[in-house]
Amino acid sequence: MDDSLFLMGSALFLPFSSLRLKGKAFLDNRENSKEYPSYLALDKKGTLSEREEKLYSIYENCHLCPRDCRVNRKEGQVGRCQATSRVKISSAAPSFDEEPLLVGKSGSGAIFFSNCGLRSVYSHDYKISIEGEGIEISDQKLAEEMVKLQKKGCHNINLVTPTHYAPNIVSAIQKAIPLGFRIPVVYNTRGYEKQETLQLLDGIIDIYLTECKYMDSEQAGKYSAEAYNYPHHAKLAIKEMYRQVGDLKLDSRGIAVRGLIVRHLILPNRIAGTEKFLIFIAENLSKTTYINIMNQYQPRYKASEYPEIARSIKRSEYNEALKWAKKYGLTHLAR
To answer: How many other C-beta atoms lie within 10 A of the C-beta of residue 253?
Structure first.
């Protein structure tokens, strides 16, 4: 029997199997480099322990994300994300449905964390992210699951919606290293991040895989539980991620080993601000930033209650986004 953890129902993966990388791939043979993966160097210096201690202290007055709930999660109090200080996950198993540069031949080791601070009305995995489906496990058990996925041949550990458990994750990475953990860590986030929290992850995370959902605060507040400050924090976060890891780099097999991937989900009627998003990337990062413009939107969860987003994306809306990307000189698009 497969010993991967897969609990409380199945996770929903988006269909990226048909994506291709346009443009020149960035090759970076890091298998024998001291920088690969980056967390090993910090562990040798003792920095991982320091980061874990700083992150865990935040639980006492939680401000890990822009919600700034300021509850004491160590005492079992919960804020907007509904999470305590004990990590909770829904599943841990190889995934073949992420971007091909992460999946390769052996899959991406996806760990889906329960609960979420953003709580969007069109969430496709609301059972996990909003209703909190999953089980609590220890940091040691999380470390063991990471190592199991590595032993299965996964090219990386893909932490899906991780921010509200960042302290546990750093603790688990530190515990996994003596067990032989040596593959890159992917921080797969919805973009609602605090710059200060990301700075505590500098040198620990190899690949940032972030969404950028909105460019307008009114839309963010309406569709993501009053997260009016989403655009402000998402922009700061993406720039901080890029500062840490730069453009996406691949090894000799074409597998991502370090860098930034930005996802943008097109919403009906230009609600996501796609053109503004592309301008932001072109003007603030690099025109070779790896971007996944996604057209998979479907009106799930409570989206049917909002007529303007109660339909799927039209081909014309997707083509419009591609034209904008070309207009602003962005050259690395997942298609």
So the answer is: 12
How far apart CA 239 and CA 236 sit, in angstroms, is 5
What is the per-residue pLDDT for 67? 98
**What is 39-334's CATH number, 2.160.10.10, 2.60.40.1120, 3.20.20.70, 3.40.50.720?**
3.20.20.70
HSE, side-chain direction, 13 A CA sphere, residue 39: 30
Please, what is the angle between helix 139-151 and helix 166-176, to 10°? 60
| pLDDT-derived band at 36, boundaries 50, 70, 90 | low
Rounded Cα gap, residues 266 and 165, in angstroms: 28
Instruction: Name the token pair of 96.
Output: 């073949």
Torsion of CA 161, 165, 167, 172, to 10 degrees: -80
Asked whether residue 286 carries a pLDDT value surpassing 90, the answer given is: yes
Number of residues assigned to the chain = 335
Where are the domains positioned within the chain? 39-334
CB 332 within 8 A of CB 316: no
Q: What is the average pLDDT value for the chain, to the nearest integer?
A: 91
Closest CA to 163 of 246, 66, 94: 66
pLDDT tens readout for residues 69-106: 999 999 999 999 999 999 999 999 999 989 999 999 99
What does residue 258 show for φ and ψ, rounded to 5 degrees?
A: -165, 150
Tokens 């605060």 correspond to 217
